[in-house]
Structure formats: C-alpha cells, structure tokens
Amino acid sequence: MLVYPSGADVSSSTLCFLAEHLRGHRHAISSCWRRLSAGRQALLALVHLRMGHTYSQLAAGFGVGTTTAYRYVTEAVDLLAALAPTLADAVRTASTKAFVLLDGTLLPIDRIAADRPFYSGKHKKHGMNVQVLTDAFGRLLWVSPALPGAVHDVRAAREHGIIDALAQADVTCWADKGYRGAGGTVRVPYWGRWKTLSPGQKAVNRSHAKIRALVEQAMASLKSWRLLRKLRCSTTRITALVQAVLALHLARSDR
Question: Which pLDDT belongs to residue 33?
Fold first, then answer.
C-alpha cells in the first residue's frame, strides 16, 4: 500500500483533549508502554472518525498492524462515549433554554437487502435511526443511541424517553410531522395538504418551518465526521461511535 502525507480538518485543541484523556486512561490501567504515544493514538482515532479511513489505511499510515489500529480506535471511542452527556444532562441544559428542537436522522450502513429491520422506507436505504436534540440556535445538546432504520421517529423518541423527559421538565420542543401524536410538550405543524389548510394554519406552518430549519445545522455538524456518512462496522458499535462524535463536538464547542 502506498503511503502519502494527508491532513484532517480537526483542531489541535480537540487532539489535545483526546490525548489528555488517553494518558489518564493509560495511567489508570497501568499501561506503561504502547507502540504509539497517547498523542499519536488520539490522532489515529480522530482521523478514523473525521475522515472515515479504514483500519488498513490507518495501519499503513501510522506504521502499526491492522489489529492494533482497531484496538486503539475502539479504546479511544469507548473512552469518548463515556464522556457524552446523558438525556438527563441534556434536559437539565434544555430547561435553561427557551425551547429545543428535535429531529431524527438516518446514518447509512453497509447492509444487504435481507436485513429488513435496518431498511428505512422513508429514505429508501439501510441505516440506523438516531434522534438529535438541539437548542434554539441549532447547537447540539444530545444524540440518542442508534436504533434500526425501520423504526419511525416518534416511536424512537418514545423508546428513548425523550417525550416524557421534556414533558416532566416542561421544556417546549419543536419537531416535524414525523412526531405527529407525540403529545407532551412536542409541537408539530398542522397536518394536511397545503391547499386544504386555512390561511392561519399555513402561517403557523411557515413559522414552524423557519424555527425548525436551524436543526439542519446540527445534522450537518454531526455528519461532518465522515465516518457517519457510511458506516461499515457492526451495528452494535454505532451507538458508541455517535456518542464519541458528540463528546468531541461538545468539547470543541466549549473551547
């Protein structure tokens, strides 16, 4: 395999953040010697998440074995996933906001046609459903564990306990028509064909769409980590990957 210099659009502060936690983890488990330093391991993990490079590509670029590259990435991802905020943390933060935005997105996965639970009829592809909570400015607050792509958004929100948690905290939430019937504090647009709606209902729907448009910024931020654009790993690892990306995104925002 040919090896050449490349770059990743990740800040040095993000690299330092992950490297510091890896050093602390190595000290906690008394891991005295590794093939790569904590800084190089952090860079390897960030390249995997940001650029979507395979383990064989990482192994060639960093001069380690493919198994070692996999082990280093898995260790870093699990460490980051543990730092991600829980739904309770996100709701506490949301309670200080005017309102929050809720939406779902599909993370494409590499699956065959026989894997029906992962097939989204809405998107016409296989994937995993994740729910995203943002503040009123479209800034990420929380990303849910991943569910099979066939799960509808409102069902996913109920399974994760999002609707009940927001209702108990009395946090107003704006969502699209996919959450029709959610209840609680979730606000959705009026249902029906555009020509059948009254002028007042049309005005409400236009205002609703303008407010919800900001959630697309959060989706773009999430998928700027290219690994999430086409996942080729086991579906049991996707939740940890999403939580790791969320932790990195929030750490970068705080700095």
Answer: 84
| Pairwise CA distance, residues 251 & 92, whole Å | 18
What span, in angstroms and rounded, lies between the C-alpha atoms of 156 and 135? 20
End-to-end CA distance of the chain: 37
State the DSSP string of 44-90.
Answer: HHHHHHHH---HHHHHHHHTS-HHHHHHHHHHHHHHHHTTSPPHHHH
Residue 222: which of 136, 147, 134 has the closest Cα? 134
Domain coordinates in residue numbering, the chain = 1-82+234-255, 87-223
99 and 174 Cβ atoms separated by less than 8 Å: yes
Query: CA-CA distance, 251 to 49, in Å (whole number)?
Result: 15
pLDDT (tens digit per residue) in 58-82? 999 999 999 999 999 999 999 999 9
Question: What is d(CA 227, CA 242) in angstroms, rounded to the nearest whole number?
Answer: 10
Supply 233's token pair: 């790993």
| Residue 207: HSE in the Cβ half-sphere, 13 Å Cα cutoff | 8
Tokens 């050449």 correspond to 4
pTM surpassing 0.85?
yes
Rounded CA-CA distance 18/47 in Å is 12
